Amino acid sequence: MSWTAAQQRPGGAATAPPILEMRGIAKRFGATQALDDVSLTLRAGEIHALLGENGAGKSTLIKIMTGVYQPDRGEILLSGQPIAIGSAAEAQRHGIAAIYQEPLLFPDLNVAENIFVSHQNRGVVTNWRKMFREAEAILATLGVTLDVRSPARGLTLAAQQSVEIAKAISLNVRVLIMDEPTASLSAHEVGQLFRLVRDLRDQGVAILFVSHRMEEVFQIADSVTVFRDGRLISTRPAAEVSPQSAIADMVGREMGLFQRRAPAPKGEKLLSVQGLGRTGVFSDVSFDLHRGEVLGFAGLIGAGRTDIGLALFGIEPATAGQIVLNGKTETIRSPRQAMSLGVAYVSEDRRQLGLSLPMSISANISLPVLSRYLTRLGLIRTSQERDTAEGFRKRLSIRTPNVELPVAKLSGGNQQKVMLSKWLNTHPALLILDEPTRGIDVGAKAEVHAMIGELAAEGIGIILISSDLPEVLAMSDRVLVMREGRQMAILDGGAATSQTVMTAAMGQEFAA
Amino acid sequence: MKWLQRHIRPEQVRELSLLLLIVAAVLIFGSMIDGYYTSRTFNRITSSVAIITVVAVGQTLVVLTRNIDLAVGSIVGCTAYFTGAQLAAHHGMPPVVAVLIAMALGCVMGAINGALVAYGRVPSIIVTLGSLAIFRGILIDYSGARTVTTDSLPKWLLELPRLNFVTIGDLDIRAMFALAVGIVLLFQIGTSFLNVARQFYAMGSNPDAAELIGMPARRIVFSAFVLSGTLSGLAGFMFLARFGSITVEAARGMELQVVAAVVVGGVNIFGGSGTVFGAMLGAIMIGTLEQSLFRLQISEFWRDAILGLLILLAVASDAVILNRLRAIWARTDLKLVARDSASPAEAKR
Amino acid sequence: MNIRARLLRWETLLLAMLVVIAGLNIAYSPFYLGVGNIVNLFQLSIEKIIVALIMTLIIICGEIDLSVASVMGLASCVTAWLFQMGWPMPWALVAALAVGGVAGLINGFWTAYVGLPSLAVTLAGLIGYRGVARILVEDRAIGGYPLWFNNLGQQPQFGPLTISIVIFLAMFAIMAVVLHRSALGRLVYVMGNNLQAARYSGVRVRRVKLLLFVASSMIAALAGLLYAARLGSVRGDMAQGFELDVITMVLLGGVSIFGGSGNLLGVGLSILVILNLRNGMGLADITGNTQTSVIGALLILSVLVPNMARMIHTRWKGRET
Amino acid sequence: MKKLLLATAAAAMLALIVPHGAKAQSAVTGGKAVDMVLLPKFLGILPFDQAHQGAEEAAKELANSKKLQYLGPTPENSVAGQIEIVTNAATQGVGAIMISNNSGDQIVPSAKAAKAKGIKVVTWDSPIPSAEGEDVFVAQVDFSETGKIMADMALSILGKDGGKFAILSASPDAANQNAWIDAMKNALKDPKYSKLELQGIVYGNDQSETSYNQALAMVDKFPGMKLIMAPTSVGIVSAAKAMQDEKLCDKIKISGLGVPSEMLAYTKNGCAPQFALWSFVDLGYLSYYTAYALATGAIKAEAGASFKAGRMGNYAITKDPTRKAGLRILMGPFSLYDINNVEAAAK
Lengths: 512, 349, 321, 347
Hints:
The structure holds four protein chains of four kinds.
Chain B: H1 2-7, H2 14-32, H3 39-64, H4 72-89, H5 95-118, H6 124-143, H7 155-159, E1 164-168, E2 171-174, H8 175-193, H9 195-205, H10 207-212, H11 217-243, H12 254-264, H13 276-295, H14 303-348
Antiparallel strand pairs in B: 1-2
Chain C: H1 3-7, H2 10-28, H3 35-43, H4 46-60, H5 68-84, H6 89-113, H7 118-137, E1 142-143, H8 147-154, E2 156-158, E3 161-162, H9 163-181, H10 183-193, H11 195-200, H12 205-231, E4 233-234, H13 242-252, H14 264-283, H15 288-320
Antiparallel strand pairs in C: 1-4, 2-3
Helix pairs in contact in C: 2-14, 4-9, 4-10, 4-12, 4-13, 4-14, 5-6, 5-7, 5-12, 6-7, 6-12, 8-12, 9-10, 13-14
Chain D: H1 2-17, E1 36-39, H2 46-61, E2 69-70, H3 78-92, E3 96-99, H4 108-116, E4 120-124, E5 136-139, H5 143-158, E6 163-169, H6 175-188, E7 196-203, H7 208-221, E8 225-230, H8 233-245, E9 253-256, H9 260-268, E10 275-277, H10 280-295, E11 306-309, E12 313-316, E13 318-319, E14 327-330, E15 335-337, H11 342-346
Parallel strand pairs in D: 1-2, 1-3, 3-4, 4-5, 5-14, 6-7, 6-8, 8-9
Antiparallel strand pairs in D: 10-15, 11-12, 13-14
Helix pairs in contact in D: 2-10, 3-4, 5-6, 7-8
């Protein structure tokens, strides 16, 4: 996979006619100036990347473009004509569609209906047969196989994202906004998505592409705009930007990309899994994990990586095989039991499965080990809770005015840090991290990576499940590759390259 | 089997398990009660569920949007009484006008609820808990404690409950039951195929997303309540025709029966899933249990305890059957997907 | 929290309503402020407000218990039946509480361990437990309890206060501590907010739910016994329909029916608002449907008016900029 | 003049049926201000409204300057509501309260508390079973008599050969219905009624829809049933309608206690050939007189006291023979309605 803008089209699209122009947009929420005099031009046949740390104003701009928010100042021009975008429906009428970071699906509607749900001109009557057929066709162009008749409830995040993309494509849009569309896609799916995005570009669609994955941005973007603190810092053709300079613009200082973690000295054997399986989900998984070791789990979405994590944590207990933890054979049946054995699992879905958003940071952090904070009468010692939270706030530099704030008010990256704190607070021996950097910005990502290194150095055994291949490669001592519920290979750090991992993930057996 | 599983989802045959349970219940009762399989039993059950079913259809629409309408009992009572009073005063009133009056009144009451929920942003349970009391209060004031009596009503109305829609062999399908089934069919088809109606599902499934993609969220919720009110109005008319003498107590407590029918019928109380057909089956299930229990030679005092137990068992076994179905589907799904996804990857190599 | 946020809080609104209602009552009825009346004001609804406390926890946890009134009836009928069979009264009372516990176990088992919606389970319970009560007492009215039992519900034991009121006050304090200071209360909120997140955090969600349903039914049983003591006679229809009143109190207290939010202070205030309103109307000879209509309207208006104010406020603000 | 004559005549006639031991009548003088509350089982039902009319009529005659308060609970909250109203009335210190008791003995504590505050507690229509907390019960008819009347009606409808019948009651907790049914069971022991066979009792909870469905179900449950006896005005109408709708009026007749205006059609078409009731207007009127007389001290609540109740004539307080304790004033008599007089009564 390329790290530079090698695949960029020569000449760029700077001369193409502008479709959507945002001029001098400003938006304030209470005391925060979310956007300050921002101007951005999207041109037909151009993929425009928008970079910036969380809180830089990207989401606000997107919401203005899609009619969710109204700007305080500034104007929006569509093909040169000033327009007002009063509602999401209006945005859609103007041919502006967005794919959000968190899929906005209707869990009870089936896949096909989700794809076509926002079509205003569907007619009066639903022609299910036709809809299924068309949905299947659109998904086929995406290279995704989904049962279009099944309800969206229970789809994996990747599948949900595919449906979102299919939804946008079905709308025949002129301006397509993609807010972190790849956050939950695996490399293979990202490849297919990019092929599709390029197709759309070639058809003259203007695309605004937001991503925290640098390598992807430079793989696909024609021009790059960087936001910082609600202000536009730079807009340049992608050829003139390097990842390093873009990051410098984003964070306001120089910063390194993924550093390959120096392998820590291997401790004693912590975990040994033999022939682990769960009926119908995954089977025959065997690996060892030592203290201080990071074992990466790579593979396509749905390959069963998360399911292994869930089995080790007792949410969906394994039905076959053996787990030996600290030299003792254990049958893990519940999260409670897993926790008592020193297992911690940081879920990939922090909104649904990870955090209680309306509750305070400190309450979230103390939740798994609440008993530690109780007086003899069973009352909670809030000051002790606060002290713990304060400790983690400093240690993980969680950016918040205080630890009594509801988690919902934090940015994604800081929420992720709260998640991490919550589980570190259980003093785990085995830490399972499921997509720990999904949807968080570069700065926060680097901090999480540094944290992983520190934890490993402290002797914690870490399982790192990630679809961000460079991340897995940089962080792991060894990489276990899964495919369709089966273990394909365990690659040693040196042997693990994007090439070898992808080959294994696509179905080629390696001799480990 | 494979083909079946690909084209029919457990969610679509959800009602099947309930249907099986109803059949099982009928068979069991049939073996315990002499002369159970008669047209009379059929008539008792169908007539007793017809009114509940019509109200349950409206309730389903409301519940689909993640709301609840507890005022239906009061709306049925009010419309039954008011329409009855009008018919008593104006004997020459054409039947159609009477039905329209009932539906219009129900519509207005539903619209009040709907406006408060959708535009006033007051949670539906609060609105309808309140209007449950207020509507009934208005009725008590309006009635002046008089009863609408059977002899004050026109003859055609009193004969309505006896009217047969069609007779198949021994079985008389009464017009009121046929009307209820017709409404269920109408709304079942509507909610399955009309794009406007699919929005009810979308709203209940994910209200935030619905609003974000520009669905007229408020209008959807509003129209659900209006439809619920209108159908309750129609049910009020049916109530008047069936029971003839209407006191201010008419249909008191019906909301619980209706909610029970909807819940037993598998409509998710948190919105988004379920069908009006399911709600009808729920009503029939409860109606069958009630009517059949009465026929058993057991003490009058034992009925409610057994009814409660049977409802619980119905809900539980329904859930168990559905979970089994889902598990079977999920297992084959996995195989299918595995096979499908294997092919393009191999083709590429 | 700044002053404006504090002013806009639900509890502040309830407090304002309470002050207005109490003021009107004082202005219009010379009897309102009498000690006897204030005691009666609580006493007349004491069983409902005791149950409302535990219902608060159940609803915050994202569940509902519609069977409380039937359990109240069942408990009192069990006691009456056993008493009639010749059991000593204390044992009959203990047995009734145990029966309440069993009802809670049944509700909790089907809800927490089988995963059926609590609305469906407790709706079946509403019918079923009432049915069991009916089997026990049939068409009889059973009275003639020992004097000490009747005195429990009818005679002041602590100054002017009856034991029921003391139980309510104690339970309010205990529930407040449980909900807002204890681990259980924390888990109740977490589960109401996000049940899956609780599960993924190792919370034993099933056990907590079971515990809540058992507590709910046992407190309902206790309330049923207090009701029996207050009325001195037990029939099959004891406390029928109380569940809606109880739920009304909890919802007016600002507890979301979807769980996760609300607090006991709000419910306490809403109880006071409703009781004072009822009492004031009763003293003003407003009863029956007018009274229920006024409470219904209050329920709607208390949410509608602030909502409208907020909408108008934002619209005004929108015009300024 | 003519009216006066009639009234005197009526009074004279009634004086004849006043039970033994009547002392000289106390005079009930009007014009005193007494706060009085009339408490029905619940609001919105015709018989109670008629009683209210009667009470208002009495209030006017007695020139009570205080307005009569007609206060009642809602149907779903009857017991708790009645207790609340009695308690509040006690707080307000009214002079008298007239209760159509729907709460059985459950109302005793609050009624006692009211009585302890010097409030006169008069029950009408439905008494407090234990009579605790009650001054006197104004009985519409003799409750034992009710059982006999029902048995008589059954016999007269079914003919000499009798037959099977069942009872459709209100709720299992309705005290007067239960009393009447017990009385009927007692009456049936008389060999005169040996041909009548009671198959069972069913409850319609005084709701027309439940009663209707129950009536239909009775047809299936009780084979050979020829009569439904419904001692409740809601039940009897619903049962009649149900039989009419099912075209069963030839086989199964309806009888019981009903309001003529509601029963007119069914009596005319033969579904309900005979039923009985008393005048609720008179009951309200008499209750008011009684309560007023007690509250003004014209009479004391003790056996033997008697007074003149306006147009209705003289009444005396006696021990209630149908209860273990308690005093009553017996109004009576029953009116039996059939095809010959129902039309006139319905007006």
